[in-house]
Amino acid sequence: MTTPIYYVNDAPHIGHAYTTLACDVLARFKRLDGFDVKFLTGTDEHGQKVEKSALAAGVDPKAFTDKVSQNFRDLADLMNFTHDDFIRTTEERHKHAVQDLWQKLMEKEEIYLDSYSGWYAVRDEAFYGEGELTDGPDGKKIAPSGAEVEWVEEPSYFFRLSTWGDKLLEFYDANPDFIAPQSRRNEVISFVKGGLRDLSVSRTTFKWGIPVPGDDEHIMYVWLDALTNYITGVGYPETESGEYAKYWPCDLHMVGKDILRFHAVYWPAFLLAAGLEAPKRVYAHGWWTNEGEKISKSFGNVIDPHDLVARYGLDQVRYFLLREVPFGNDGDFSHQAMVNRMNGELANDLGNLAQRVLSMVAKNCDGKLPVHGEFTDDDNRLLDAAGLLLEQLRDAIDRQSFNEGLEMVWVVIRAANGYVDSQAPWKLKKEDPQRMATVLYVLPEVIRRIALVLQPFMPDTMARMLDQLAIDPGKRSFACFGEGHSLLPGTTLPKPEGVFPRFVEEEV
To answer: What's the rounded Cα separation, in Å, for the pair 224 and 98?
Structure first.
């Protein structure tokens, strides 16, 4: 699975963290479920926009990209991401891969030399047709993204994209899960049905890029360069063995909705034209706003993940970003919503459940898991609900429905809190000690299953919760989820400690 490679013309923000977080949760989940995972991320370091940013900073492009690329590595460390490879498009392995792909396309006569005249947005590194543009207040033409476009005339190599419309539609029809969510699939199909034009794939007006093989006057168009990173990361052009043979076609490209066209139209066309397999799925998620306002550097409301983590805590931020809105939709970040999730769901629902249950075990059972009696219908109902969580989350994760998966877990957490209140083990201590023991066995076992499935979302805090249940680190994979791995009565538990402190509202 892959993130987009992030463009190094500026500092990382919440959108970068969000995309990679979704991949990280998916990668962690699959590893815990016994899968061999290759998780790739990295930085996109060529193009006119980078060249201009470096010039503005007074440094050469390589020095500029070295510095900014490190910012994205630092973000990955901050957010506790578990990528297996970090690729930079300035690496020699990538240059080798891109030039090999270019030569394959040339050999198959999918690329030809001509001249280009048209509208180009430096900010997007994208070409636009006249019909896609609107007039800005100063008379300048504006792309659908809001970027200004400029008229470009220069010699260019072209990819025969116009010949791929029907083939792409056939491919989408044969692979209905290739584009997700469904609304994005409909957008792409509509775009392709509207007709495709041949795509300019080289530039001559700037030099910061990978040279076209055999024609150093041209550098490769940044999207052909950038998209190829996905196969560079698995060892292309070696295709018969190694990681390419093992991991390609990619199971999932995770992207923001603004770059879906490149991944769902251009990329499969490039690959199929070269005789290579297309990825299995491209998922385009939505954008975040900030307190109802569009996020923009010019507005001064960019959300820095470092600030969020420093203020609220790492796992709290990881949880919020995938909990607050259905994945795929646009979402609005607000500090009040963050605090509400932290205090209502993390501190009150889950944190308080674990703290009071384990405190009762410590106080009433000499700090050991009690020996349970026969389970009642109430006990089995709660245990069964917790026992279904893994299968439910497998389905949700495979559909990238992170919010839905978390809601399934919270249904069980709320049921467990209701069970504590209805069973009232503090009363049972005098009235029916054996029943109290059963209740205080059922609840830690339910907490164990909850903590296991929440590990991909909140790895640090769930590790601490599993520590408090005395779960051996070697028994935290999903292979140990079922009844055969239930808690052992008589196990001594460490002193319980809260893992989700409440956030004081006045600090907002």
So the answer is: 8
d(Cα 279, Cα 171) in Å, to the nearest integer? 11
Tell me if the bond preceding 249 is cis, omega within 30° of 0.
Answer: yes
Residue 190: Cβ-neighbour burial (10 angstroms; 0-12, 13-18, 19+): exposed
Q: Which of 276, 191, 193, 164 lies closest to 227 in space, CA to CA?
A: 276
Residues 6 or more apart from 418 whose CB is under 8 A from it?
A: none
Question: b/e string for 374-391 if b means 16 or more Cβ within 10 A?
Answer: eeeeebeebbebbbebbe
Classified as helix, coil or strand, 7 is: strand
Cα angle: 56, vertex 129, 120; to 5 degrees: 15
DSSP structure class, residue 209: S
Beta-sheet strand order (sheet of 293-294) = 293-294, 288-290, 331-333
What are the chain's domains? 335-507 (1.10.730.10)
* pLDDT, one tens digit for every residue, the chain (508 residues): 999 999 887 788 899 999 999 999 999 999 999 999 999 999 999 988 888 889 998 999 999 999 989 999 999 999 999 999 999 999 999 999 999 999 999 999 999 999 888 888 888 878 788 889 999 888 889 998 888 999 988 899 999 999 999 999 999 999 999 999 999 999 999 999 999 999 999 999 889 999 999 999 999 988 899 999 999 999 999 999 999 999 999 999 999 999 999 999 999 999 999 999 999 999 999 999 888 887 766 677 888 999 999 999 999 999 999 999 999 999 999 999 999 999 999 999 999 999 999 999 999 999 999 999 999 999 999 999 999 999 999 999 999 999 999 999 999 999 999 999 999 999 999 999 999 999 999 999 999 999 999 999 999 999 999 999 999 999 999 999 998 899 999 999 999 999 999 998 654 4
Residue type, 54: A
- Count of C-beta atoms within a 10 Å radius of residue 256: 17
Q: Helices marked H in 182-304 — which ranges?
A: 182-193, 222-227, 229-232, 242-247, 260-261, 267-273
Phi, then psi, of 435 in degrees rounded to 5: -65, -40
Query: Which is nearest to 27 in space by CA: 72, 77, 81?
Result: 81
Amino acid at 315: D
Closest CA to 25 of 447, 248, 317, 415: 317
Pairing of strands 202-203, 215-220: antiparallel
Tokens for 386, please give them: 């917790």
